[in-house]
């Protein structure tokens, strides 16, 4: 059986990653979305264990000590981390795994697991990103500015990713990500290994 692959999706806060990923994951039981742990407070509508595992800083530090994270990073005043166990279990069972993580975490995962595919999602423009962040209404104007500054820093690493997708419409972004995933499964290094079993 072909083992699952891990696909990292990074992109600035507010770029619409969650909407794109929800559309990508809808009705696909061959895909596993890695649920991160975070010390950030839940936004309205976010459910513990579905969008994130919402934990406090002490518990987060304990998980670091116990080496339970594949990667973790600090982002605009909060910690975020990928629990290792579920990612490994899903890949062993043949499922592809989607990691929605920022650029520092992406670097950590890629250095530990170089076969991870990295996709950067960008907004159609900075003005549109600011509009999306503001209209979400979940952050103070100060936090919106911090997220915009962070977005521009992250953008400088985009050229190190394997793929670059512009989220102009959700349909286009999903179509391109599906195409990338399909192409990655057709790489000789993956396909020829199955043949020789
Ligand atoms: P948000 O607060 O908007 O949900 O997420 C902020 C940023 O943290 C996003 O760029 C998101 O991709 C990233 N993020 C979410 N979970 C993780 C994680 O487990 N590890 C890392 N490194 N970043 C994460």
Describe the model.
This protein is of the alpha/beta class and 197 residues long. It has a single domain (6-195), classed as P-loop containing nucleotide triphosphate hydrolases (Rossmann fold), CATH 3.40.50.300. It has helices at 17-25, 57-65, 84-92, 103-112, 126-136, 141-155, 170-185, 188-195; strands at 6-10, 31-33, 37-38, 53-54, 69-75, 78-83, 96-100, 117-122, 163-166. The chain has a 5-stranded parallel beta sheet with strand order 2-7-1-8-9, with helices on both faces. Strand 5 (69-75) and strand 6 form a beta hairpin. Helix 1 (17-25) packs across helix 7 and helix 5 packs antiparallel against helix 6. The longest helix is centred in the C-terminal third of the chain and has 16 residues, at 170-185. The termini are close together. 28% of the residues are buried. Bound molecules: guanosine-5'-monophosphate.
Short description:
The protein has eight helices and nine strands.
- Look at the structure and name the CATH superfamily: P-loop containing nucleotide triphosphate hydrolases
Strand order of the largest sheet: 2-7-1-8-9
Total helices: the number is: 8
Distance between the termini: 9 Å
Instruction: Describe the oligomeric state of these chains in a short phrase.
Output: single chain
Radius of gyration from the alpha-carbon trace, in angstroms: 17 Å
Using the 3D structure, state the CATH architecture.
3-Layer(aba) Sandwich
Structural class, judged by helices and strands?
A: alpha/beta
Number of strands: 9
Could you spell the SSE succession in H and E letters? EHEEEHEEHEHEHHEHH
Biggest pleated sheet: 5 strands, parallel
- The CATH class designation is Alpha Beta
CATH fold field value: Rossmann fold
Q: Which runs of at least 5 residues are low in confidence (pLDDT < 50)? A: none
Give the overall shape.
globular
Strand content bin: 15-25%
List the ions, cofactors and other small molecules found in this model.
Answer: guanosine-5'-monophosphate
Indicate the mean pLDDT.
Answer: 93
Number of domains: 1
Fraction of residues in helices?
40-55%
């Amino acid at each position: 059986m072909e083992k699952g692959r891990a696909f990292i999706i990074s992109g600035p806060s507010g770029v619409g990653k969650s909407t794109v990923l929800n559309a990508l994951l809808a009705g696909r039981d061959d895909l596993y979305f890695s649920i991160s742990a975070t010390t950030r407070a839940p936004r309205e509508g976010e459910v513990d264990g579905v969008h994130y595992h919402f934990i406090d800083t002490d518990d987060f530090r304990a998980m670091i000590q116990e080496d339970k994270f594949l990667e973790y990073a600090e982002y605009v005043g909060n910690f975020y981390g990928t629990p290792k166990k579920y990612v490994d279990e899903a890949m062993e069972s043949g499922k592809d795994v989607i990691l929605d993580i920022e650029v520092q975490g992406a670097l950590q995962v890629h250095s530990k697991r170089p076969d991870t595919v990295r996709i950067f999602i960008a907004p159609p423009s900075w003005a549109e990103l600011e509009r999306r962040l503001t209209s979400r209404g979940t952050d103070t104007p100060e936090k919106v500015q911090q997220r915009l500054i962070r977005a521009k820093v992250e953008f400088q690493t985009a050229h190190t990713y394997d793929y670059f997708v512009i989220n102009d419409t959700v349909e286009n972004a999903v179509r391109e990500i599906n195409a990338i995933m399909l192409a990655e499964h057709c790489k000789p290094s993956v396909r020829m290994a199955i043949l020789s079993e």
